[in-house]
Design a protein that fits this description.
By secondary structure, the chain is α/β, with parallel strands linked by helices. It is built from 16 helices and 10 strands. The strands form 2 sheets. The protein has an 8-stranded parallel beta sheet. Strand 5, helix 7 and strand 6 form a beta-alpha-beta unit. The chain is globular, with a radius of gyration of 20 Å. The chain starts with 7 loop residues before the first helix and ends in a 43-residue tail after the last helix. The relative contact order is 0.20. The chain binds flavin mononucleotide. The site of flavin mononucleotide has 25 residues, from helix 2 and helix 16.
Length: 406
């Protein structure tokens, strides 16, 4: 089956047929009018490559480093809540696929499989994503759990002081586990393989929270807890506080403005993720790719700049690198693979993206991903992106951080 899948769109179509509508819609949606969700993809697609010939592209190298760790591609799996509802044990399967492929996996605070579950099932260290909650004792314990599990970086997401509204989720009555009303029951029963796998796992609630946060012993108490817990009062002082408690590599996610990027660096970020949460938070915000050049120009020499939002192919990876990113994160691209074919689907997503990246590099006359620069792109069609200054004394894909043993 995986061999007849030729692109991420194929995996998306298959996932739509295999995942109950309530959870498929949760993935394939953005906030309000979804204008930022759409812009992430269309703005990326508007960047045209500079085709080069006669360059000897016999050997192509996509290997790189992220946060000092060697990886087969400059790409990490983004934190995505509820991946364990897209496919039973989803976070474990995705983490395993990422580890085998040689790229980092990021576990969300609101995952179904817990930090301990993933650490027990997957040999490679992973990154842990943190949302700032009002219950600071819970945050301290969560950080300790991530450290005890051997997580190699903490990803602090700042673009969610309140939750953006996705109309489809409201209409579908999204909850975990799903409410067993007639409509949800019929959409789930129309996906019998999904149901059978779900019945076969014990992981069906928020593994990092239920049983760990004060007063949250079941999923119903969880819903009430979450609505009270997202902390709107977060400032850069809290980021410094997190950095101190964590003590390891800190990635600040959800940056869309050059001034915020500078503040993140000043607060101790070892890397930032230029991100609008995949168009799920501030509808009407710029696409990530259009915000990237100004941010990379502001802080790209002091910190690693990752970017996510709309990456669906190896061509998109090359566009992001050319526009100033050290690496990218993918959200929906791997979730579609997961929903379609479980672990094999995530592996297929990664294989497709790597193959597409290799071919695109070859046709642009680039043999090493570290050599991708602004000149891989001819002038952008949308004109929104400011010029990315040519790197001085350092190649775009090269990190300032020392390479670590993995
Ligand atoms: C279904 C879904 C759940 C997400 N959950 C989280 C989350 O728990 N924490 C977080 O920091 N970002 C979350 N995100 C945002 C992703 O980390 C990432 O920024 C986004 O998916 C990138 O856009 P893309 O899906 O177009 O690749 C989520 C995204 C999706 C699609």
């Amino acid at each position: 089956m995986a061999d007849t899948i030729t692109c991420v769109d194929d995996l998306q179509r298959l996932a739509r047929r295999r995942v109950p509508k309530i959870f498929y819609d949760y993935v394939d949606s953005g906030s309000w009018t979804e204008s930022t969700y759409r812009a992430n993809e269309t703005d990326l697609g508007s960047l045209r490559f500079r085709q080069r010939v006669g360059c000897n592209v016999e050997a192509i190298r996509t290997a790189s480093t992220l946060l000092g760790h060697a990886c087969s591609l400059p790409l990490a799996l983004a934190p995505t809540g509820l991946a364990g509802m897209v496919h039973a044990d989803g976070e474990i399967l995705a983490a395993r696929a990422a580890a085998r492929f040689g790229v980092p996996f990021t576990l969300s605070t609101v995952s179904i499989c817990s930090i301990e579950d993933v650490a027990e099932q997957v040999a490679q260290p992973f990154w842990f994503q943190l949302y700032m909650m009002k219950d600071r004792d819970f945050i301290v314990r969560l950080i300790e759990r991530a450290r005890d599990a051997g997580c190699s970086a903490l990803v602090l997401t700042l673009d969610l002081p309140i939750q953006g509204q996705r109309h489809k989720d409201v209409r579908n009555g999204l909850s975990v586990p799903p409410k067993l009303n007639v409509r949800n029951l019929s959409t789930m029963l129309s996906r019998p393989a999904w149901c059978a796998r779900m019945l076969g796992t014990r992981r069906r609630t928020f593994g990092n929270i239920v049983g760990h946060a004060k007063g949250v012993s079941d999923t119903f108490a969880f819903a009430e807890w979450v609505s009270r817990q997202f902390d709107r009062s977060v400032t850069w002082d809290d980021v410094r506080w997190i950095k101190r408690h964590w003590g390891g590599r800190l990635i600040v996610k959800g940056i869309l403005d050059a001034d915020d990027a500078r503040l993140a660096v000043a607060a101790g970020a070892d890397a930032i993720v230029v991100s609008n949460h995949g168009g799920r938070q501030l509808d009407g915000a710029p696409s990530s790719i259009s915000a990237l050049p100004a941010i990379a120009a502001a802080v790209g020499r002091q910190t690693e700049v990752l970017m996510d939002g709309g990456i669906r192919s190896g061509q998109d990876v090359l566009r992001a690198l050319a526009w100033g990113a050290h690496g990218v994160m993918i959200g929906r691209a791997f979730l579609y693979g997961l929903g379609a074919l479980g672990e094999a689907g995530v592996t297929r997503t990664l294989e497709l993206i790597q193959k597409e990246l290799e071919s695109t590099m070859a046709l642009c006359g680039i043999t090493d991903v570290a050599d991708v620069g602004r000149d891989a792109i001819v002038s952008p069609a949308h004109g929104a992106a400011p010029a990315w200054p040519e790197p001085v004394g350092r190649r775009v894909g090269e990190s300032n951080l020392p390479v670590l043993a993995s």
